[in-house]
Specification:
Blueprint lengths: L4 H14 L5 E6 L10 E3 L2 E3 L5 H10 L2 E7 L1 H8 L15 E7 L1
Antiparallel strand pairs: 1-5, 2-3, 4-5
Length: about 100
C-alpha cells in the first residue's frame, strides 16, 4: 500500500526527533508532479503521495536533512545490479533513491 502524505510527514517527523547530528537516511520515492498527474495507479493501488525531484530537497529540509545524492534508476542499476562481467541482475523502473544527512 502506498503511504498518504500525512503518514509520510509523520514518519519523517518521528525520524527527525530520534536522529542525531550526521545521521543518514536512504529511501526511495515516486518522482512525479502530483498536480500534473493527480491519480496514478501502480499494481492496482492508488499512489497517494509523491513529488517531483525539484521538491525533494525542500521537503527533506523541513525535517533537518540535506540531500547528498539523488540517483536515477539507471544509475542505481549500474551501481547495485551490474555484475563484473557487465550483465545486469535486474532493472529498476521509476524509482529515485537518495541519501540525506541530518543537519
Amino acid at each position: 500500500m502506498y503511504l498518504s502524505e500525512k503518514t509520510v510527514c509523520d514518519t519523517m517527523r518521528d525520524i527527525m526527533e530520534i536522529s542525531s547530528q550526521s545521521s543518514l537516511i536512504g529511501l526511495d520515492y515516486l518522482n512525479f508532479n502530483p498536480e500534473k498527474m493527480p491519480k496514478i495507479i501502480r499494481r492496482d493501488e492508488v499512489v497517494r503521495f509523491g513529488m517531483d525531484i525539484k521538491s525533494m530537497e525542500a521537503f527533506m529540509g523541513v525535517y533537518g536533512f540535506s540531500i547528498i545524492e539523488n540517483l536515477e534508476p539507471d544509475e542505481i542499476s549500474n551501481i547495485f545490479l551490474k555484475c563484473d562481467d557487465g550483465r545486469h541482475l535486474g532493472r529498476l523502473n521509476q524509482l529515485e533513491f537518495f541519501e540525506s544527512s541530518f543537519s
